[in-house]
Amino acid sequence: xxxxxxxxxxxxxxxxxxxxxxxxxxxxxxxxxxxxxxxxxxxxxxxxxxxxxxxxxxxxxxxxxxxxxxxxxxxxxxxxxxxxxxxxxxxxxxxxxxxxxxxxxxxxxxxxxxxxxxxxxxxxxxxxxxxxxxxxxxxxxxxxxxxxxxxxxxxxxxxxxxxxxxxxxxxxxxxxxxxxxxxxxxxxxxxxxxxxxxxxxxxxxxxxxxxxxxxxxxxxxxxxxxxxxxxxxxxxxxxxxxxxxxxxxxxxxxxxxxxxxxxxxxxxxxxxxxxxxxxxxxxxxxxxxxxxxxxxxxxxxxxxxxx
Amino acid sequence: xxxxxxxxxxxxxxxxxxxxxxxxxxxxxxxxxxxxxxxxxxxxxxxxxxxxxxxxxxxxxxxxxxxxxxxxxxxxxxxxxxxxxxxxxxxxxxxxxxxxxxxxxxxxxxxxxxxxxxxxxxxxxxxxxxxxxxxxxxxxxxxxxxxxxxxxxxxxxxxxxxxxxxxxxxxxxxxxxxxxxxxxxxxxxxxxxxxxxxxxxxxxxxxxxxxxxxxxxxxxxxxxxxxxxxxxxxxxxxxxxxxxxxxxxxxxxxxxxxxxxxxxxxxxxxxxxxxxxxxxxxxxxxxxxxxxxxxxxxxxxxxxxxxxxxxxxxxxxxxxxxxxxxxxxxxxxxxxxxxxxxxxxxxxxxxxxxxxxxxxxxxxxxxxxxx
Amino acid sequence: xxxxxxxxxxxxxxxxxxxxxxxxxxxxxxxxxxxxxxxxxxxxxxxxxxxxxxxxxxxxxxxxxxxxxxxxxxxxxxxxxxxxxxxxxxxxxxxxxxxxxxxxxxxxxxxxxxxxxxxxxxxxxxxxxxxxxxxxxxxxxxxxxxxxxxxxxxxxxxxxxxxxxxxxxxxxxxxxxxxxxxxxxxxxxxxxxxxxxxxxxxxxxxxxxx
Lengths: 307, 371, 210
Prior knowledge:
The complex is a heterotrimer of chains A (307), B (371) and C (210). By secondary structure, chain A is of the alpha/beta class. Chain A has helices at residues 3-6, 30-45, 66-75, 93-105, 154-163, 167-180, 209-212, 285-296; strands at residues 51-52, 81-86, 109-110, 119-123, 136-140, 191-193, 197-199, 218-223, 228-232, 238-240, 267-271, 278-282. The two termini of chain A are 25 Å apart. The relative contact order of chain A is 0.15. Chain B is of the alpha+beta class and 371 residues long. Chain B has helices at 8-24, 34-40, 42-52, 57-66, 71-82, 131-135, 156-162, 191-200, 203-214, 283-295, 312-318, 321-329, 336-356, and strands at residues 100-105, 222-236, 245-259, 272-279. Chain B has a 4-stranded antiparallel beta sheet. In chain B, a hairpin with an 8-residue loop joins strand 2 (222-236) and strand 3 (245-259). The two termini of chain B are 32 Å apart. The model of chain B is unreliable at 360-371 (pLDDT under 50). Chain C contains 4 helices and 10 strands, in the order αβαβαβββββαβββ. Chain C has helices at residues 20-36, 56-65, 81-91, 164-174, and strands at residues 42-43, 71-74, 94-95, 104-107, 130-134, 138-147, 155-159, 182-187, 190-194, 199-202. In chain C, the strands form 2 sheets. Chain C has a 7-stranded mixed beta sheet. Classes of the chains: A alpha/beta (307), B alpha+beta (371), C alpha/beta (210). Chains in contact: A-B, A-C, B-C. At the A-B interface, helix 4 and strand 11 of A face helix 1, helix 5, helix 12 and helix 13 of B.
């Protein structure tokens, strides 16, 4: 441990007066953390398999990231630097709220810079900046079961996963192609991990799916309400399901980002007036800012780091 | 020039200040005290304690006050607090035959040892708004009974049991009951896990499901064998003492439903049970719970599972209002990215259709429900 | 029994974490790194003093991950009263009589047949046990070649005096995936993991004269 971390006590530090009194470091009690840590280790050992865990009620509503929060709370330490994004952005209300939660309960340093973070909690996006070894990406997952829309019973889907009987998924995708001429699933597009488990990537746009493949960072997925944790270890094969005659493709735009000019990032559509005039801007706010900085060769003051 | 939306932090802060102000309401009106809520909104307190899985009237009253009377929100507050509490141990199982009864009724026998005790009940009130309460709440003291309630108040199901007419209440084995607050529930679930789930389950959900069985969605004709409400002392054996000590008293409501069962080649015809139990005075909840507990035993009793109330995975997965409220309301969170993905897909589909058949465009496929 | 009532001689020898919450977190993160990147040798910096024959790493892993909800089985070669008392006192874990009942096992280099351990079911493969194996040497020499999730291409590893039968045994177990056992090897304060997914090719069996 570093000298600076030893100055802090369990309930926070003198340096940060805003830390919540009377609660454990990162909110969860140690017993709960151990239970979640054991589940995480098994998830890593069985890539793509959903490990059931004794999910707790958190002070944020189920469905609002309680799985990701419990995973982050169980892995984070005093020396970590945390980044929280929702829809790719550090500034959406939910991201701000979760970042504040860890600021209040753990007092860890936070950042908006993707490459400075050691732990990144995300909802619905993978950052555009490639992640590196020793970073951990924590996904918030609403429905961890990729087969749920085809078979709603857990008792059935568990058997399918056990026996790797995934015919129903392929038939489902193929029927989709037969009807529309293409796979119309645009987010939460199912993947197969290490040629074994079919896994939900969480509702990221399929644009982000290729980033999961052989990612150098560890990917952890937490579904609090559904009480499941799963993982993809670094450098693990993650393949989006497709067919030889209908290969997997990602979204593309004719437009470029109106702010930074990027033509290879995921774009959000913004309506700018009553006539429905639209413009497109990067969904990853930090990536966009860095692109602008590169162009102007100077940091943008109003978007400075730190929160 | 367009600047990406920022400032979530101050918006959240301001919204919360406004919320606090709205909660307080008109400052010329006296502030509610927790005592007032505990005493005059006692059934709300009881519901919050039951579904919040924490027996503490003062904290439940605080949660109700903080949530502006939104009981599902109050239940959530109590649950979130509960998870942070250390667990010192487990109390001795309660024996409801020993409770000091305040209310006890049976719909199956006209009279029985201990008698029918109506107690405090809305049952035979005429539902007429009492305008005198709008003026002031003064009520005359209730009449005191000449005789104390009979100490001997056997449970109706025990009386039936003496004749062997009702199945024995038995635990599945000697193992500890399942604890859904510590472990991820497994399916098929043990009865202990089901009962714990129902005891914490949303009253409205259980009520609707129980009602559905009465209308034929899962044949299940119950008799309210007994409903009893009263106080019980809670005992705990500390490791260092080795003998039980009383650590407090709680109010509970218990409902024993009696259901028909034809019997089989091995078992002679006998009645079966459905069980409901709740913290506080929660009659509607415990009755609904008793009906659903019985309906969920379909598999065990070789009945066909046809209706939602009999479907264990359906009932257990959707009974928690903290989970349900969170997930339904999470749709308020930003979904810009997924929606953008859908826009790209729908536009591409429309374009493909327009290119192929410019004159007879197919209906545009609907947008899949967002996550 | 409360601590007061215990005589001093009942208190376990050795020293546990000084700051359990943060030290557990640090040790866990190191184990997570090790389990995510099979073959990566990770040091567990810790001031604990476990009673022999427990290695620092073995004890730190147990202190970090085990509690009253887990069952530990200790192989007879390492099963001393001091070790058991230390682990039970500091974690509250339960000791399993049979390896089959245990979530975690501590073993020496004489590894019994892997059939003895709980490898989970196809439905619930996470019930497969974690085996902590104390060895005499862990280096990155080319005794074993590792491939699989968590490894970019391939990696070399050498683990002391583990016999070849163990690796054959493990190969056979891998046919049952997703059922399986996950291994954490320890030596002093270093550790390396081989989760059930890692494919191991034995390059040299005689590396350490075994």
